[in-house]
Design goal:
alpha+beta; seven-stranded mixed sheet; five-stranded parallel sheet; 26 strands; disordered N terminus
Length: 749
């Protein structure tokens, strides 16, 4: 029975959506798309097509796209049909403004019936000429558009199927060779059937069609002499290095000056049992090295998958989205996300598309290695300079890319290297799951650094917390080179010298700059490190007595006994904190508390203006900005807060700085570096830190025999010097005794 209705979204009156449908199939093919786009005129032509009636062979998919010319711009519309197991059919048509597009898509994706309209569609092509739609596009143009889209969709589906078959073959071959974890291709699975704590799906395979250095193959078994390795720093880079070295049979000691481990991913409990974090930690689907590490140490169930959307919260409670959910994968899912986003105006979308379409991202689809080289060459310019030069708009920078840049590198597009941004864009464009987000189900100490620490200690590794490295001892050789002979470590007023076969500095930028001997700056390699700097960051945690991101009903947000709100990472272009999340929703294991509400974790980047402020003033300012983003939360009360300031966090990825990033091997043969700031193709991130640890371990093992021989030589030399010193002291004592005897004899005479 047909019925008519209309709806209103965000205060905008919208014509009724109409559907002419049979019974919805109970087990329909997953084609989760209803992408409705519009321009500033708030009008989209209707479109529908019956896949079963047309005899489509693409698993029940039918797509139709109509275009027309108006005085201002082009209008586009796209919709799809779903055919059930029992052959039932559905026709979706819509004439919606951009404000309603997201609501209609959500209604369609959730399997709900859309409101029905008694209007009959035109027999030819399923186009419904209503109102201003009549005569806006010639029939021939519509037919050509339909033919074009059919060809594109069919070609896209064939390519997706081919890629899946190739990937399955490669994964099977890789598993047969070494049984190692390498990431699984995304399977089109309904959201209800996905295990959100699993790393078996929704993870990119960075071994395939990706630059070679991003996910190294499993290392060959080490057959050299066992080494004693001393590591300074217990962050992800240091622990990643330790895990790899222990797996190769080496002996590892880790020295950490703070009372807890984890570095920038550390967390600890305050006296009241609240978990305090160093920052907000988000795991992209392309973090293969980090996922491999978590699988290895048994932490693979500690992450929770989020919806495949990137959400922007605007002043006044407005919500914008990059919705990557689509019936097919890269690159079409990204094109759909950027064309359908309501975070940008139509003009900004057009200019944004123009800039990205002429970028190395396109080359990455067919030549990932060549594209990565092109991206590296763009390190000398800022993202803004590159983007505007390619035809992009300032509006896209301000409303979308700045929040993303702040989240990735802690600085805005005017100051961040184009290399940094385009590296991530290339992954998003070529890997369907690269843009998928995960967050820890609890605190980093329990979910990330804790399992890694247990793995290290179970295999004989040792952590020495509160023992910070105060000095590197070294000897200069006749040829002007140097070798490390030991580390001076201290705990309170205690000091001791640590000897090893090999030494690794897994520090952040200020840490390595303090640690290196001043004389080593004579080498350009080490002097370049002092040209790098970190970005100040302030992390603020705010606990409320209700649910901030519920955004609808203040009474519900205050009185709800269950968690309500947005369970995902959030961006904002209208606050000093560019990214934030409600940890009580995203990481409930340690942050949800019965009878309490949201725990917002807000990251202020760069934090320069906030560093001199008191914690109370910082909390006041951030809380005020929260209320501007979520007006419905103004009646909530703040019950607890914490502020963590880091003077230098991620290294400042400004234009031209990539040149100064050091390799893991150094001019000092038994001294190595590990850290996300060192040379690797990921940005400064958790993935970059993990990859740097793998690279450092590989280079240590490659030099294993040389390091062992050098250590033996230094030990023998030290023993000889000690023997000579003892012998010299004995000779001095004999000479002194002889002089005393002669003096005594003269006295006697």
């Amino acid at each position: 029975m047909a019925m008519a209705a209309s709806m209103s979204v965000a205060g905008t009156a919208v014509p009724a959506a109409y559907v002419e449908a049979g019974t919805w199939g109970k087990s329909s093919t997953t084609l989760d798309t209803c992408s409705l786009l519009s321009c500033r005129r708030q009008s989209v032509p209707g479109a529908c097509m019956d896949a079963a009636g047309r005899g489509s062979r693409e698993r029940g998919l039918a797509a139709w796209m109509g275009s027309r010319r108006c005085p201002d711009c082009f209008y586009w519309s796209m919709s799809s049909s779903v055919v059930g197991r029992r052959g039932s059919r559905s026709r979706l048509g819509a004439r919606l403004g951009s404000a309603a597009a997201g609501a209609a898509a959500e209604q369609f994706l959730s399997g709900q019936r859309l409101v029905l309209d008694p209007k009959k569609e035109e027999e030819e092509g399923g186009f419904v000429p209503t109102g201003s739609d009549v005569g806006c596009a010639p029939r021939q143009q519509r037919r050509r558009s339909r033919m074009m889209v059919r060809r594109v969709v069919r070609a896209g589906l064939r390519e997706v199927q081919r890629q899946r078959e190739e990937q399955q073959e490669e994964d099977s071959a890789a598993a047969g060779e070494n049984g190692s974890w390498g990431g699984e291709i995304f399977q089109s699975t309904s959201s209800s059937s996905i295990d959100r704590a699993s790393l078996a799906t929704m993870v990119s395979n960075m071994r395939r069609k990706a630059p070679k250095g991003l996910f190294p193959p499993e290392p060959a078994k080490y057959n050299g002499p066992k080494l004693r390795v001393a590591i300074v720093g217990s962050g992800l880079a240091g622990m990643s290095t330790a895990v790899e070295l222990l797996d190769q049979g080496h002996e590892v000691d880790i020295f950490e000056g703070r009372p807890f481990i984890g570095g920038k991913v550390a967390s600890y409990k305050d006296k009241n049992g609240n978990h305090v974090e160093m920052g907000l930690h988000v795991f992209f689907g392309c973090y293969n090295n980090l996922f491999r590490l978590m699988n290895k140490v048994g932490g693979d169930r500690n992450l929770l998958l989020k919806d495949h959307t990137h959400t922007f919260i605007n002043r006044g409670g407005g919500v914008g989205e990059l919705d990557f959910r689509f019936f097919t994968g890269a690159p079409l899912h990204g094109i759909k996300a950027f064309l359908s986003t309501n975070q940008l105006s139509f003009g900004d979308k057009v200019q944004n598309s123009l800039a990205l379409a002429t970028s190395p991202i396109v080359r990455a689809l067919v030549d990932p290695e060549g594209a990565m080289q092109d991206i590296r060459d763009l390190d000398k310019v800022s993202f803004t300079e590159w983007f505007l030069g390619q035809g992009g708009s300032r509006g896209s920078i301000d409303r979308m890319w700045n929040p993303v840049a702040y989240a990735l590198g802690f600085i805005d597009c005017d100051n961040i290297s184009a290399r940094c941004m385009l590296t991530i864009f290339a992954f998003f464009a070529t890997k369907t799951e690269a843009s998928v987000l995960r967050m820890l189900k609890g605190s980093p100490d329990n979910g990330l650094s804790g399992p890694i620490r247990k793995y290290i200690e179970d295999r004989g590794g040792r952590f020495h917390v509160r023992w910070g490295c105060r000095e590197i001892l070294y000897e200069e050789q006749l040829d002007g080179s140097a070798v490390v002979t030991g580390l001076v470590v201290g705990k309170s007023t205690e000091k001791k010298v640590v000897k090893a076969d090999c030494y690794v500095a897994a520090c952040d930028i200020p840490g390595i700059q303090r640690l290196l001997p001043k004389r080593w700056r004579e080498w350009e390699f080490f002097d370049n490190i002092y040209k790098l700097s970190g970005v100040p960051v302030v992390t603020v945690q705010l606990r409320y007595d209700g649910w901030v991101t519920e955004m609808q009903d203040i009474q519900r947000s205050r009185n709800s006994k269950s968690a309500v709100g947005i369970d995902n990472l959030l961006y904002s272009a209208d606050a000093d904190f560019s990214c934030f999340a409600d940890l009580a929703l995203t990481s409930p294991e340690d942050y949800y508390k019965e009878g309490e509400g949201s725990l917002l974790q807000c990251v202020i980047t760069p934090g320069d203006p906030y560093m001199p402020l008191s914690n109370e003033e910082i909390v006041r300012r951030v809380n005020e900005q929260v209320f501007k983003l979520f007006p419905s939360s103004r009646g909530l009360n703040l019950t607890w807060s914490s502020v963590v300031k880091i003077a230098q966090s991620l290294y400042r990825e400004a234009p031209g700085m990539d040149l100064f990033r050091p390799d893991q091997s150094t001019p000092v043969p038994n001294f190595f570096l590990s850290g996300s700031y060192t040379k690797q193709d990921y940005i400064d991130s958790m993935e970059g830190a993990t990859l740097s640890g793998r690279q450092a371990s590989t280079k240590i093992c490659q030099a294993g025999q040389l390091l062992y021989d050098l250590s033996q030589s230094l030990t023998a030399k030290a023993a000889q010097q000690q023997e000579q010193q003892i012998s010299g002291e004995s000779d001095q004592q004999l000479q002194h005794q002889k002089e005393e005897d002669e003096e005594e004899l003269l006295t006697f005479v």
